[in-house]
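URGENT: need a sanity check before tomorrow's submission.

F., can you look over the WDR60 protein record below? I want to be sure the sequence and structure line up before it goes out.
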Amino acid sequence: SDGSIRLHQMTSESPLMQWNDSTKGQPIIALQWALTRPAVFFALDASSNIYIWDLLENDLLPVAKQTIPSEKAVTMTLLGEPEKANGLLGIVLAKESGQIDIQYVKKKWALP
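Structure tokens as predicted:
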């Protein structure tokens, strides 16, 4: 609820990594690991900003931020085929109106 993200290992209560105020205090409403690239995850905040984290490139800050224009996104999920090496990865956004928006991710964050 405060924009913090914690990375845990299943065998420990304490987080391996913790990023405080990663969204400038905005609640995170969806977070998901990339299906095609294990070191990348995406976070959607309550202000409809998507943050892309690539832990191999930078483990302190997101590598990119994209604001969803026009209408508030209420949730997000990812689509892709991890068993294929084509690097196709998409973000599916559900908006307040009920509209669904699909955006494809740049290859550099999608390729295995």
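My own read: The chain has one domain: 5-109. The first strand starts at residue 5 and ends at 8. If you see anything odd, call me.
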